[in-house]
């Protein structure tokens, strides 16, 4: 829809006479002046608007003017009289070319950008209704990999362009100019967000210098407009979540049979003499998965007067957990935001954004074989749900076989008590002073204040009469020496940034446009935490679980009855930055940015570092020689530059006085003379004054193509980045002793990849609109150095299956966090095969054959090799939006291809339950040769449970992440009540197509823990209905 | 006007900012309440606190004692199976390689001891800030420092032969990979120098038990001479200890190894442990105040009545039948050294003893001297036994002196017999078993007596090597190779040190 206002509308004249006409062209929504808009008469360009958005022409009365501007809907108007015109152009909703993108310390028209940026707009976020903002980036922002977790409110893995390191890979988050962290994205209400821009290449991130190395997520929240009538919107959504699938474990009779086999093949007795009595028993997964509510409600108002604008919102979100239900696992959030701007004078503007958040969560033990979920998979299926044994206190059944580590998951849930309350206040105060035309000085103080108060109660528990982990006896009395306990922790932190900068935009001659910024920033992160634990909570009850009610006091024999701790920390940074964006007629683009960063953490030799970047762009479609009319825009871009990472703390030679050390090298102090302990002191740390940040060099080439009147658009980028100076502990001579070696910048990695976004819009007739987009993200990563001699490895992905195992490694020559273990080659079918095979200790027929990778005739640790990679080869997102009359439909599908999963949730104890795959086990020569199904026995001299590709599965998946069908009531239906009302039904995680046999192939974690399934909390399928009203 | 003033104010503000800004990122560890080396060694108590932690690594080189017997004919490494405590199994089987966690732990921790001692000598004259901190007893205190450094080097040299030698300072990362191995003779020379200094400085008596005395330094120097076959020097040095009359043999041999017998009249140097600071770091099992080696000696799955004194353990350090057979009838040391669990069980039916037979390399015997006992540990029970290691006892000094006199250039077998027979008379409770032999027969008698007297105290392997008997007595011992242990592979890889011959 287009609206044209003509000042001094008069009687149309039929006479054709020459008149002089002046006009001003503005963006209808923002009143922003449109510079360079084209004015044409009968297809012939007669003028362009100047820097003030003005044009002046001579034409004849009655002629038709067409005013057009890239990304806006052109408008036509008849000249009826001389004088002044104001032309307001509407943005073309199908086009992004008119968009203005928020970049570091300023904004830039998308057509002038020569760096690599991915954008997700409010409309897309609104449709998804995400709990955490990152969810809206998954598959929508190319170049960004998001791996979500199912645990309510928990932080996903977010990687912008590859894996630069083994830790510290979170991108920096900037909310309305204020630096925050990825963790903080749990407290922003998705409906408050106007847009999210992900800055990907060095040209756009270098202005964030030492913080920009992992990419920058720029979140802009909504604001009001001047002289806007209050627009009030109400959104409400209620849904039910449920688990998508369960894992096939043995039922009671199958379990009994397998246990009998395991025992007898190991020379033991038959455990279950009467298998037929066992029946199917209990599938504990059905006991712990509950359906849980997910609801969100927001109300917001935006508008403005002559001198001020406002955006006010309040929101509430509550997500219950499907493991254990809302009572035990949940995430609740309340938000209150006010974004206000005031014109204090003509030149002075004051902006204040304030958001208060309350967070309330509860959690359960996750991510291990003995977590609630892990216990459900591993617990004895022959046990009945309820405890029927006389004279025992337990509410739920217990096993007489599993006597430690793994308990009835219901008992575990029943004994889980915790609460975590947080309150956060964040926002900014900003003054903008317009010194002269196009020169603005801004000074901004951004802050985040968080206070958390957590509490957890460990009650006395009874797990069964023979259980070694009991703290309560069967009769309800306390096991001697055991206590229940309450633990409190209060954390408090305050992070602030004070930034002052000047933006000056000017023209040289007529067509050289320059936008410049120059400024500095001071930042401080500080915090402290205090905690206390106390034993002996009255009545062993959560009701009295508080330090004040607990009665424990330390005695000579029990020094743990009452304990406390405190710690504090801070970080400080100082930065200077500047950027020049240049364009010639919006045809040739260039940008140069520089940042000088100082960090308190670095040695005197490297206190400050400089980061530079540059980019060039060429809008080919603006060239005169370019004659392809179907092309609306073709831009070729390239950039190069450096950014950094400061994952380090200051170093010093400290002297520690005391006793035992629990540090990495156990560099203890003190000695006993006679029977008396005397504390001692010694050098406890060493300093590396050459310490500096991790330095990253990234180059990017790409193009933007818009064709067929904005119907198709394609943005594609290829990048290469090398990270140099990753922090590692150098290998030092052992004769230096046990003082931990200081970390040094000795590792490096390189990544390269491709990301693109394809968009297609179509309207058929008046009533049918259609939009679809595809994103594609891929990257290749390699560790190119660890330490001087390349021997240092960082191990991770630990789990326990009878032995502590490590699956992932960060090692030179491999992709970060690759799976490291034995390759299998089927099963030994008979003794002759064992004898003929390279020496493999303990092997018997039916055991797994491991590959002699190094060919030395013996199977040992040096045969461990690359057996998988938890990160996808590529990911894709496909979104579809359709509207027909008042109906709208949208779907979003996300695919991840080539990500492997390591199945690590099986405990493998003699009496723990097993995956159903054990039913396909080897039972004699020729029964199977599949290495996943070795013989089953309690004795495992061959260690079939060692880390091997037996447990690696292809975790590629296609997920239908979102399906939504809506109906909008037209205004005429109920004009008096609202402007617009929409009802919708939504299904999230409707279906997953995958070969993975576990719950959910999306397994989030750090770089070394991603893709290790220790019983990871699966994402829920959510059915919801919602209502959006605009008053 | 207005704009101008704002411009000026802005300019001034910017200038102030630029000047003061740099300070914003200055950092002083005091901001984080951290004490650095610039703040330390400013008072007597700083020096004394630091000395305490020079003792600490004595506790960490804990495994030298079990290795001293497991590597010999005295003990086997037992355990659950062939791969249980692999590092000790390989030493027991003489299949050990440069990759051995027990050996690298000894190497690493002994060098931490050297570095801690060096840090003190480095700042003896003046602290880091250049200040002189003088106080009464400083010299005597430094006697302890040099003794400890000598003890760490002695541990290194008798385990590994030629080792990197440095005494000027605590090495920093810059000195990593900078050193070569120094000849054994140079290391011994430095040990002699340090012990000489210690003897001059140290008092004869210390009020705190476990503090190094002049006699400990003399006894250790005597031992060091003996290891270099400097018998004349050894004889006179050890005689200093004997003639001081400061020590006596405890009449009840077995009582010496009870908690109540610690730091007794026969004790010259004991490494102190206690159960009063419970420790739980499995990542550094020997780095607390408890004696980790005790748990290794224990009987698996041991259960019994409250009166039964022993606690369960891991059976990874078991005396051999060969050792038990070496004791002649009437030698009271036998039952004080080896516990025959079956015999004990039968003798004490009221204890209702049940236990698990050692699953691997079972000998039926347990190390009675260092057997875990009920009530002697705390916290993480495996790591916190209070039992001290008896490192140098008066009996050892007598036997060393006997050997030194027997092997002196002017041999004095009468004196040698006298010292030897003091030990034997205590063992048998009479003079009927006195040795009257002379010459090399006497020498062998003294050597044999060392085994009987000091069994399971960690000296046997070193004695066998020192006296050239190792190849004859130890299965798998290869002359020219097994006199020393291999330099840890990691050190060879990182520091480019040469490996010992044959490894």
Examine the secondary-structure arrangement and name the CATH architecture of the domain at 18-89 in chain A: Sandwich
Low-confidence stretches of chain A: 1-16
Q: What is the tally of helical segments of chain B?
A: 19
CATH topology of the domain at 42-202 and 459-491 in chain B: Serine Threonine Protein Phosphatase 5, Tetratricopeptide repeat
- Averaging pLDDT over every residue of chain B, what do you get? 93
- Count of individual helical segments of chain A: 7
Kindly report the CATH topology of the domain at 18-89 in chain A.
Immunoglobulin-like
**CATH architectural label of the domain at 42-202 and 459-491 in chain B:** Alpha Horseshoe
Strand content of chain B: under 5%
Distance between the first and last residues' Cα of chain A:
20 Å
Q: Write down how many β-strands of chain A occur, each being a DSSP E stretch of 2 or more residues.
A: 51
Structural class call of chain B reads: mainly alpha
H/E order of the elements of chain B?
HHHEHHHHHHEHEHHEHEEHHHHHH
Name the helicity range of chain A.
under 10%
The CATH class label of the domain at 42-202 and 459-491 in chain B is: Mainly Alpha
Key features?
heterodimer, A: 1031 residues, mainly beta, Immunoglobulin-like, 22-stranded antiparallel barrel, five-stranded mixed beta sheet, 51 strands, disordered N terminus, B: 503 residues, mainly alpha, Serine Threonine Protein Phosphatase 5, Tetratricopeptide repeat, two-stranded antiparallel sheet, 46% helix, globular
């Amino acid at each position: 829809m287009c609206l044209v206002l003509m000042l001094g509308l008069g009687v149309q004249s039929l006479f054709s006479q020459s008149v002089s006409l002046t006009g001003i062209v503005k963006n209808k929504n923002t009143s922003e002046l449109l510079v360079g808009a084209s004015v044409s008469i009968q297809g012939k360009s007669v003028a362009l608007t100047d820097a003030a958005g003005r044009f002046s022409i001579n034409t004849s009365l009655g002629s038709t003017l067409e005013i057009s501007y890239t990304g806006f809907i052109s408008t036509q108007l008849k000249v009826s009289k001389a004088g002044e015109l104001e032309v307001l152009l509407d943005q073309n909703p199908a086009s992004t070319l008119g968009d203005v993108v928020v970049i570091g310390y300023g904004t830039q028209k998308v057509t002038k950008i020569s760096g690599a940026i991915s954008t997700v707009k409010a409309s897309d976020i609104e449709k998804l209704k995400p709990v955490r903002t990152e969810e809206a980036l998954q598959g929508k922002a190319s170049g960004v990999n998001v791996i979500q977790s199912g645990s309510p409110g928990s932080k996903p893995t977010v990687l912008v362009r590859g894996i630069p390191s083994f830790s510290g890979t979170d991108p920096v988050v900037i909310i309305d100019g204020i630096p925050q962290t990825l963790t903080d994205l749990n407290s922003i209400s998705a409906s408050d967000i106007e847009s999210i821009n992900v800055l990907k290449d060095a040209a756009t991130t270098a202005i964030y210098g030492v913080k920009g190395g992992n990419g920058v997520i720029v979140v802009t929240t909504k604001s009001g407009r001047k002289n806007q009538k209050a627009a009030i919107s109400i959104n409400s959504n209620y849904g039910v979540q449920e688990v998508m699938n369960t894992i096939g474990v043995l039922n009671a009779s199958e379990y009994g049979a397998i246990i009998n086999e395991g025992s007898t093949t190991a020379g033991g007795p038959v455990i279950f003499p009467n298998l037929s009595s066992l029946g199917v028993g209990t599938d504990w997964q059905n006991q712990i998965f509950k359906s849980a509510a997910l609801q969100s409600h927001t109300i917001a108002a935006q508008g403005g007067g002559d001198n001020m604008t406002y955006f006010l919102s309040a929101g509430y979100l509550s997500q219950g957990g499907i493991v254990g239900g809302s009572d035990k696992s949940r995430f609740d959030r309340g938000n209150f935001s006010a974004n206000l701007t005031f014109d204090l004078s003509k030149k002075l503007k004051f902006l204040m954004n304030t958001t208060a958040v309350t967070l309330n969560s509860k959690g359960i033990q996750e991510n291990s074989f003995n977590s609630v979920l892990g216990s459900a998979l591993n617990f004895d299926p022959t046990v009945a749900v309820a405890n029927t044994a006389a004279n025992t206190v337990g509410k739920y059944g217990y096993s007489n076989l599993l006597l430690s580590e793994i308990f009835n998951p219901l008992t575990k849930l029943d004994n889980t008590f915790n609460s975590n309350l947080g309150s956060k206040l964040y926002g900014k105060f900003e003054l903008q002073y317009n010194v002269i035309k196009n020169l603005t000085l801004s000074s901004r103080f951004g802050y985040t204040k968080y206070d958390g108060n957590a509490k957890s109660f460990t009650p006395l528990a009874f797990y069964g009469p023979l259980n070694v982990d009991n703290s309560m006896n069967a009769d309800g009395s306390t096991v001697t020496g055991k206590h229940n306990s309450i633990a409190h922790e209060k954390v408090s932190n305050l992070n602030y940034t004070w930034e002052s900068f000047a933006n000056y935009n000017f023209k040289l001659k007529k067509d050289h446009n320059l936008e410049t910024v120059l400024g500095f920033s001071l930042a401080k992160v500080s915090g402290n935490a205090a905690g206390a634990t106390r034993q002996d909570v009255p009545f062993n009850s959560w009701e009295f679980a508080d330090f004040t009610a607990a009665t424990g006091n330390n005695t000579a024999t029990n020094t743990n009855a009452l304990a406390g701790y405190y710690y504090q920390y801070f970080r400080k940074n100082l930065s200077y930055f500047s950027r020049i964006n240049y364009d010639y007629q919006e045809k040739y683009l260039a940008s140069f940015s520089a940042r000088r960063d100082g960090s308190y953490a670095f040695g005197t030799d490297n206190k400050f570092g400089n980061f530079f970047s540059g980019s060039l762009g060429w809008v080919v479609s603006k060239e005169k020689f370019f004659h392809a009319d179907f092309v609306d825009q073709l831009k070729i871009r390239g950039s190069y530059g450096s950014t950094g990472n400061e994952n380090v703390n200051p170093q010093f030679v400290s002297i520690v006085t005391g006793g035992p050390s629990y540090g990495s090298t156990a560099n203890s102090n003190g000695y006993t003379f006679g029977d008396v302990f005397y504390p001692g002191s010694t050098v406890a740390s060493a300093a590396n004054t050459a310490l500096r940040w991790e330095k990253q060099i990234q180059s990017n080439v790409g193009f933007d193509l818009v064709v067929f009147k904005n119907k198709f658009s394609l943005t594609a980028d290829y990048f290469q980045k090398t990270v140099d100076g990753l922090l590692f502990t150098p290998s030092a001579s052992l004769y230096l002793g046990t003082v931990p070696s200081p970390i040094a910048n000795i590792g490096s990695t390189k990544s390269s990849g491709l990301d693109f976004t394809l968009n297609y819009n179509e309207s058929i007739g008046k009533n049918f609109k259609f939009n679809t987009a595809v994103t594609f993200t891929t990257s290749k990563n390699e560790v190119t150095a660890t330490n001087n001699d390349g021997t240092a490895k960082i191990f991770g992905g630990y789990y326990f299956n009878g032995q502590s195992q490590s699956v992932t490694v960060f090692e030179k020559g491999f992709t970060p966090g690759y799976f490291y273990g034995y390759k299998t080659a089927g099963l030994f079918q008979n003794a002759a095969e064992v004898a003929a095979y390279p020496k493999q200790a303990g092997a018997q027929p039916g055991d797994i054959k491991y590959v002699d990778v190094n060919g030395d005739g013996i199977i040992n640790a040096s045969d461990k090799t690359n057996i998988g990679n938890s990160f996808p080869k590529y990911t894709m997102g496909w979104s579809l939006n359709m509207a027909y009359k008042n109906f709208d439909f949208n779907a979003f599908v996300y695919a991840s291809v080539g990500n492997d999963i390591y199945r690590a949730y099986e405990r493998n104890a003699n009496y723990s339950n097993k995956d159903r795959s054990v039913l396909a086990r080897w039972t004699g020569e020729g029964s199977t040769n599949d290495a996943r199904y070795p013989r089953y026995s309690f004795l495992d001299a061959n260690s079939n449970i060692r880390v091997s590709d037996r447990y690696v599965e292809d975790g590629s998946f296609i997920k239908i992440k979102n399906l939504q069908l809506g109906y909008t009531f037209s205004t005429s239906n109920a004009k008096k009540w609202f402007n617009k009302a929409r009802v919708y039904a939504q299904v999230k995680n409707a279906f997953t197509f995958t070969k993975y046999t576990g719950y959910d192939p999306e397994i989030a974690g750090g770089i070394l823990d991603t893709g290790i399934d220790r019983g990871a909390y699966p994402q829920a399928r959510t059915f919801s209905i919602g209502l959006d009203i605009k008053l | 006007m207005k704009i101008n003033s704002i411009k000026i104010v802005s300019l001034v503000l910017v200038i102030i900012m630029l000047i003061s800004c740099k300070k914003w990122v200055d950092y002083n560890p005091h901001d984080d309440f951290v004490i650095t080396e610039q703040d330390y060694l400013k008072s007597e108590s700083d020096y004394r606190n630091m000395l305490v932690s020079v003792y600490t690594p004595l506790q960490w080189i804990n495994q030298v004692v079990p290795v001293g017997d497991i590597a010999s004919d005295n003990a086997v490494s037992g355990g659950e199976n062939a791969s249980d405590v692999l590092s000790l199994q390989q030493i027991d089987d003489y299949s050990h390689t440069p990759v051995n966690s027990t050996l690298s732990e000894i190497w690493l921790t002994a060098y931490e001891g050297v570095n801690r001692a060096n840090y003190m000598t480095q700042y003896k004259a003046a602290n880091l800030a250049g200040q002189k901190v003088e106080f009464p007893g400083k010299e005597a205190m430094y006697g302890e420092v040099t003794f400890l450094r000598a003890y760490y080097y002695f541990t290194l040299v008798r385990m590994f032969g030629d080792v990197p030698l440095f005494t000027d300072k605590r090495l920093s990362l810059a000195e990593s990979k900078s050193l070569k191995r120094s000849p054994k003779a140079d290391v011994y020379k430095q040990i002699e120098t340090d012990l000489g200094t210690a003897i001059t400085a140290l008092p004869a008596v210390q009020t705190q038990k476990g503090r190094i005395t002049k006699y400990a330094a003399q006894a250790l120097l005597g031992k060091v001479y003996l290891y270099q076959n400097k018998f004349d020097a050894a004889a006179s040095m050890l005689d200093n200890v004997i003639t001081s009359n400061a020590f006596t043999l405890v009449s009840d041999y077995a009582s010496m190894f009870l908690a109540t017998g610690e730091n007794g009249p026969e004790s010259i140097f004991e490494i102190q442990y206690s159960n009063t600071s419970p420790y739980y770091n499995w990542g550094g099992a020997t780095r607390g105040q408890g004696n980790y080696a005790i748990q290794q000696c224990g009987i698996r799955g041991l259960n019994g009545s409250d009166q039964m004194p022993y606690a369960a353990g891991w059976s990874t350090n078991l005396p051999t039948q060969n050792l038990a057979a070496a004791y002649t009838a009437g030698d009271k040391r036998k039952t004080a050294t080896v516990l025959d669990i079956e015999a004990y069980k039968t003798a004490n039916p009221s204890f209702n003893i049940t236990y698990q037979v050692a699953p691997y390399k079972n000998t039926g015997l347990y190390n009675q001297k260092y057997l875990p006992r009920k009530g002697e540990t705390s916290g993480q029970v495996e790591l916190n036994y209070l039992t001290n290691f008896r490192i140098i006892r008066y009996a050892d000094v007598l036997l060393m002196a006997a050997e030194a006199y027997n092997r002196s250039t002017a041999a004095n077998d009468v004196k040698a017999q006298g010292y030897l027979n003091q030990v034997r008379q205590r063992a048998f409770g009479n003079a009927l078993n006195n040795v009257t032999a002379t010459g090399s027969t006497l020498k062998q008698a003294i050597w044999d007596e060392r085994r009987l007297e000091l069994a399971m105290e960690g000296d046997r392997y070193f004695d066998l090597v020192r006296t050239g008997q190792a190849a004859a007595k130890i299965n798998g011992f290869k002359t020219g190779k097994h006199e020393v242990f291999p330099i840890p592979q990691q050190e060879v890889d990182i520091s480019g040190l040469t490996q010992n011959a044959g490894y």
